[in-house]
Amino acid sequence: MTWKIIKLSLKAIFNNKMRSFLTMLGIIIGVMAVVILVSITQGATSGITDSISSMGSDLITATISDEDVSISAEEAESLTEYRAISSVAPVISMNQTVKKGTESGSYSIVGTTAEYFTVQDESVQSGRILAPSDIEWYTHVAVIGTEVATDLFGTWDAVGGTITIDDRNYTVVGVLAEQGRSLAGSDDSKIIIPYSVAERITGQSRISSFYVKAADSDRVNSAINIIEMFLLRTTRDEDAYSVNNQSEVLDTMNDVTNTMSLLLAGIAAISLIVGGIGIMNIMLVSVTERTREIGIRKAVGAKRKHIMLQFLCEACILSIMGGLIGLLFSYCGISVYNLIAGSIIAMNLTVAFAAIAFCAVIGVLFGSYPAAKASKLQPIDALHTTG
Amino acid sequence: MIKLRHIYKSYELGEVEVPVLKDINLHIKPHEFVSILGPSGSGKSTLMNIIGCLDVPDSGDYILDGEYVDSCTEDELSDIRGGKIGFIFQQFNLLPDLTAYENVEMPLLYHRIAASERRERVLKTLEQVGLSERMNHKPSQLSGGQQQRVAIARVLAAQPSIILADEPTGNLDSVSGKEVMDIIRELWKNGNTIVLITHDNNVAKQAQRSVYVHDGILSEKECAI
């Protein structure tokens, strides 16, 4: 019986191909809007959140924004005395013109210690990282990013080469592993030198920021408290510094993405509802057109529920079929987007499933009024047998 | 079997109430072949709708097989129609999108009859009306006489005890009309109760007994039409 009703509905839909397709168009466009927009938003932001989370949630960044406040590397490093803090990497950052023969370019210079590589979870693909002795002996060595290596040496194989920063020669001892792009631009275009050497370039013994690695992720909050207390004690000015944790940034990022997806899905849901109204409209026309059929069916023994089920089934099939066609088009749309934008965005399956479920709900919701109307037709009125 | 007692029925036409049936009393015994004669507008179709449980009277009793039909709900009426009554209409009333086979099968779908038995019944009744060859044709591909025979097969497949025929030959040429009447007479001989509604005296004569409806009043005697 159920199968017969589905078959009957399909027959009615295919008997009127053009009209059925136009009716489904509203649903098709609605589903495409939901699936494509949400997939692209989530695909684009997941790249950013991935790069943030790869830095680790136990990483805390402290930035001293007030130029007049002076915190030395030693003061910052003393924080490791606390059990909640496993390592501290002081950072002096600046932008300098870097030369190599005739090639030159402006790069961000990071003056730091060996701890930096642990805290930031960075490693070298060739050569070595900074050693404690480099800081102690003021050796002019540099670990460079892959982009710097390509720019200045034309190759990643730059270990042993010499670059000139602020009229002094530095030996390249290592090349960093490739990072890719992130929110703050390319991470591959930095040069890491011992912070003691950087101090000499700036002529000041103050650090601009320091990175802290908490002992474990459960103690991130207590580590943040310790750092804030330390900075407040040293600077006596709450506005002179800021302390950030990656997981906070990540949370904010996720919030933004989710709000955005929800907003887009909401807008697209409205178009789905409009599509549903289209289905209701056509179903009402269909009920009027098929009054005679309903009358005949009732005359031979069909009950209200049979007629109701038949029209409800038809509305649901229309909307679910529209949804599936919409998914197919969405898949094509995303593929085309990937081809043009060169990205690898996948269709968001949760949203796809939700869209189909929503279509089914719309089918029932907007099909029930026409179906109820059909089932209430009196057989004699439907048969026109008066007189 | 069919007992109508003091049946009244009227329709509202705007503000005016038009009486269609006035104090109808009719008793039809099992296996009887009764024809109801009357001109158009006399109320005979309304009478048939009431007998066929498509409509309920305003007042009066309708007892079908000992059951008071006037107090039934819509769905109970559907059950009675499906189980006991078969309709043969003047306009055939086949579903144009379904094949002859599917048209005959359609009522059975509403009665929860197993697929194998359904198939058996459909094939048997289509053979009975001589249309086995054309069971995959749609109504538009069949002649009027053939369409009416499909409609009769549809009635037979549901195995009703009462067959109501409303001007079954009205839209047919004389040859097809005769064929259809032969089948109806055959059904009567096989034990069905037949109620035939017509305005044609020649058709009515084939029945055992005729009653006449005129201006909503039923009489056993013929009056001027």
Computed Rg of chain A: 33 Å
State the CATH superfamily name of chain B.
P-loop containing nucleotide triphosphate hydrolases
Helix content of chain B: 25-40%
How many E strands of chain A?
12
Strand order of the largest sheet of chain B: 6-7-8-3-9-10
Order of helices and strands of chain A: HHEHEEHEHEHEEEEEHEHEHHHHH
Based on helices, strands and strand pairing, what is the structural class of chain A?
alpha+beta
Give the helix tally of chain B: 7
Text of the CATH class of chain B? Alpha Beta
Helix-strand layout with pairing:
The complex is a heterodimer of chains A (387) and B (225).
Chain A: H1 2-15, H2 17-53, E1 59-64, H3 73-77, E2 85-100, E3 103-112, H4 115-119, E4 124-127, H5 132-136, E5 141-144, H6 146-153, E6 162-165, E7 168-176, E8 181-182, E9 185-186, E10 190-194, H7 195-202, E11 209-214, H8 220-235, E12 241-245, H9 246-289, H10 291-299, H11 304-341, H12 349-375, H13 379-383
Parallel strand pairs in A: 3-10, 5-7
Antiparallel strand pairs in A: 1-11, 1-12, 2-3, 2-6, 2-11, 4-7, 5-10, 6-7, 8-9
Helix pairs in contact in A: 1-11, 2-9, 2-11, 2-12, 9-11, 9-12, 11-12
Chain B: E1 2-13, E2 16-28, E3 33-37, H1 44-51, E4 59-64, E5 67-68, H2 74-84, E6 85-88, H3 100-109, H4 115-128, H5 144-157, E7 162-166, H6 174-189, E8 193-198, H7 201-204, E9 209-214, E10 217-219
Parallel strand pairs in B: 3-8, 3-9, 6-7, 7-8
Antiparallel strand pairs in B: 1-2, 1-4, 4-5, 9-10
Helix pairs in contact in B: 3-4, 3-5, 4-5, 5-6
Overview of this protein structure:
The complex is a heterodimer of chains A (387) and B (225). Chain A is an alpha+beta fold. Chain A has 2 domains: 2-51 and 251-383, no CATH class; 67-236, no CATH class. Chain A is built from 13 helices and 12 strands. In chain A, strands 2-3-10-5-7-6 form a 6-stranded mixed β-barrel. Chain A has a two-stranded antiparallel ribbon with strand order 8-9. In chain A, helix 2 (17-53) runs antiparallel to helix 9 (246-289), helix 2 packs across helix 11 and helix 9 runs parallel beside helix 12. In chain B, helix 6 (174-189) links the parallel strand 7 and strand 8 (193-198). Chain B is 34% helix and 28% strand. Chain B has 7 helices and 10 strands. The longest helix of chain B has 16 residues, at 174-189. Chain B is α/β, with parallel strands linked by helices and 225 residues long. Chain B has a 6-stranded mixed beta sheet with strand order 6-7-8-3-9-10, sandwiched between helices. In chain B, strands 2-1-4-5 form a 4-stranded antiparallel beta sheet, covered by helices on one side. Chain B is globular. In chain B, helix 3 (100-109) runs parallel beside helix 5 (144-157). The chains are: A alpha+beta (387), B alpha/beta (225). Chain A binds chain B through residues 1, 4, 11-12, 15, 292-293, 295-306, 378-380, 383, 385-387, and chain B through 11, 40-41, 45-46, 48-49, 52, 54-55, 74-75, 78-79, 81-83, 87, 89, 93-95, 97, 106-107, 109-112, 154, 158, 166.
